[in-house]
Amino acid sequence: MVEADGGEEDLEFKWGIKKGVGGKKKDFQFYQSFTYDGVEYELYDCVYLWVDGEPEPHIGKLVKIMETPDKKKRVKVLWFFRPCEVLKYPGVVVDTAEDELFLASGEGAGLANMNPLEAIAGKCKVVCTSKDSRNPQPSYEELQKADFIFYRAFDVKDLKVLDTIEEKVAGIEVKCLFNRPGLQKPGIVLNLDSDKKGVGGNAVASNETEVPSKRNPSKEHTTLLTNGISVDTVRKEHADSNASLVKQRASLRENPASSVGVEIGELPLSNDEMENIFTDQTKSRSKVTKNTGSKAFLDKQKSSLREHPASRIVVESESSKTNNRQDPSDNTASRSADDSVKREGKVGNIPVRRGTIGKVVLEEKVKSAKDCVDLEDRPAKKAKFDSSIKASDEKNEKNALKLSVGLDGKDPKALATLTTSEDEPRLKLTEDSQGAGKSPFKVPDEKTKHSNGKLFKASPRQFPDVDKKMVYQIMEVTRRPDADRSKWFRGLPWEERMKTANEQGTLVLLQNLDPVYTSAEVEDIVWHGFKESCTAKMIQRTSISSPHYGQAFVIFKTREAAETVVRRLDEGCLLLSNGRPLVGSIGTPCFPEKKPTFFGHYVIDKVRHQMARGMREAVSTSHCSQSNTIEYEMAMEWCLLQERSELSWKKLYKRQGEELKKLNCSFKSKWR
Amino acid sequence: MGSSAAQAEYAAFEEKVKRTVYLDNLSPKVTETVLKMALNQFGTVKSVQFIPNYMEPRNIPQCALVEMENSRQAEAVVSEISQFPFMMSGMPRPVRARPAQVEMFDGHPTKPGRRIQCRWLEPSDPDFKIATEIKRLTWKHAAEVAFLLKQQLQEEEKLASQQQDKLKGNYKKYEMIDSIMTDGTARRLARRYNLHIRDD
Which element (helix H / strand E) includes A380? Predict the structure, then answer.
């Protein structure tokens, strides 16, 4: 942990890419990115922000980065709400996962505001798990690494939870709020390429290529392009990926439900492969390729690890779509087509005319709650890609939004093209996939939503499961993945946080730690032992603390987490190095009283008045006593008492140490 | 952070520990300024950090870490204060000084190269029972510590009240002497016993 005194001003800071100017007088300079304290932040990154006196950092998304005319650095932050913040409103009753966040939405206080850039405490990995078709689905690893997920929004005006994210929040296109495809590895992507079609299926489309196909699964991961790299990744599909796909498919088929867990390991791999290929191809981006992407997201991890192994396979398919714009008329056309798609729940192939820019990835996922799978593929047309991607971005976003939200078309310009095709191969994966293949949208909306919800709820739970797997093995405690969080501690009023945590029941007292551990190490231990993040603080040793036991207060994010940890520590044994089983209990710190009593300093009532004056006049109130005074005599009595208690502590600790040692020696397996 | 940087950081920290003094038995009235003033007699105080007490429900005296300019000064403070009773913000309970220890510092750096392992024990593991036993022992020891602390505080309170009484008695004595001096009783008695006293 870094010491606080440096102050944030001293931290390294550098502006990144400039974006333009704004403000009434054009005197605000906007930026696309900046580097602060060694961390590079970009627009639409999620960050932690400390607010004084709050136990937990706030989480928000950077939606504007600017320098004011007087050289102050400001960021506009669109907030996320934690479940506890949302649930406190009357009438808000939702099931929330512990690592779920709600995107602020609507209008009013609490949506977004300006903050000094220095308030940023670190990056936060927030993954959008919205099944919205425009949201690139996170991979399994991403989900695991994520600090938080979100897929719902909270309307700050109406104070209610919205199941969908509006198309524009605080003036920000929804596209920017979703995951960033360019930066993410796709989760489990099955590229279903045609066995039938062969590699050729990967149409590199020149301008008007139509991709007729049904199974032309290539995946496009386009980007929301925020990083000034304007690289839109056009992903073409590759023989390799196909191959891997096939492999996956095959294996999936073999082990229909039960072993999907295994597969998951493999999938990301192949995925990576694809990724590489894709990047290689970025160069070819002037040509847009087709994008029918289908992504199958096996939600197996979750379900199979959970109590009902294998009972549920959720396959989501996600397809990407190219959004073409430029041609208003075309747009409209395609849009309406789109609408109809929505309405009828049927998808046909919607040929897309050419637009100019293709760039939005939409994923449509259909999940089936039980074992049905839906797939859709949408071959899209390609368009020529021009360099104006950036500019068009915004529009695309809008369009994209419309599509998936199914909102009324306010934006006639928007166009999106969707072609859907079915994905037969995918269907095979599921046991009862019959029929599903043909009508991808068959699953009624509600159901979809439903399963959606489940999915999300489930995902956090996946951690404990993973955890269970690791149980009983020796874990090397290393820095947890998001260790840079320790930076947040800077300047925190820990006492305040602890008070709040105590009230909320999220405070745990850990005992029997090695006294030499640091707070950061305790956090790491908790992370490894429970897969929970927390903030910890070792209790500082004093002259009367036991040399055998280190103690730490740990603040968890939720009461449930705290209780689970305590329960697990109580029932099981988490053995640390040197054979120390960790002991935990709900912490009850005590806070100094306003007027603490202290024995041993006296004033004689009658002289108090004179004394007080005398004290004030004294330069220093400290001195060594002279040996011929009553003060000295009394001081000696105190010294005697101090020595005596010192001795008792020593004896006590010595005995305790022996007791401990005796038990420690009886361990069968040896610990360093 | 490279390991060499970590080592350098840790070495710097160890230096800091060496030039720091741990003080306890401090009255709650003692503030940073008071501490600085008091210890500037022995050298230059660089920083003062109070150690918060969140664990003990009772009022235990404050303790603080005082960083001096160098380790020599720190040693001087410790030896001086242990040789003579040193009063700070009140009398007669003296403060106590010790060399500081690494674990007393808040947020001290991790010692480079330390490896920690952890694992969950299977309930069937023979060690499970031992671990459970140790956990129990942890609680027991914590209770013992709490008890001893309580005991110690009681003793302090007892001593304090004794001394308070003694002081009062003493004061009363002086007051009486004063009064017999002023109201002439002393002089009368002196005459009577043929003693010579001079009032000056």
Answer: none
Please report residues of A whose CB lies closer than 8 A to that of B89: 601, 621-622
| A241 within 8 A of A231, measured Cβ to Cβ | no
pLDDT, tens digit (0-9, with 9 covering 90-100), for B108-146:
888 887 788 888 888 888 888 888 888 899 999 999 998
Residue A164 structure tokens: 């969908």
Residue with tokens 């440096």: A6
**pLDDT tens column, A43-85:** 888 888 876 656 677 888 888 888 888 888 888 888 888 877 7
Cβ neighbours of residue A202 under 8 Å, at least 6 residues apart? A193, A216, A218, A236, A237, A238, A289, A290
- Cα(A14)–Cα(A183) distance, rounded to whole angstroms? 22
Which one, of B65, B74, B15, B66, lies nearest residue B42 by Cα?
B74
Residues A292 and A231: their CA atoms lie apart, in Å, by: 19
Phi, psi of A78 (to 5 degrees): -95, 125
Report the 10 Å Cβ neighbour count for A436.
24
How do residues A455-478 score in pLDDT, each as one tens digit?
333 333 333 333 334 445 666 666
Contact A277, A330 (CB under 8 A): no
Q: Do A607 and B138 touch (CB under 8 A)?
A: no
Task: Name the band, by pLDDT with cuts 50, 70 and 90, for residue A443.
Answer: very low
**Farthest-apart Cα atoms in chain B, separation:** 95
Contact predicate A539/A522, CB 8 Å: no
Cβ contact (<8 Å) for A600 and B93? yes
Q: Does A656 touch chain B (CB under 8 A)?
A: yes
pTM of the model: 0.48
Please state whether beta strands B62-68 and B45-51 pair in parallel, antiparallel, or not at all (unpaired).
Answer: antiparallel
Cβ burial A209-221 (10 Å sphere, 16+ → b, else e): bbbebbbbbbbbb
Note the pLDDT of residue A670: 58
CB contact under 8 A, A542 and B104: yes
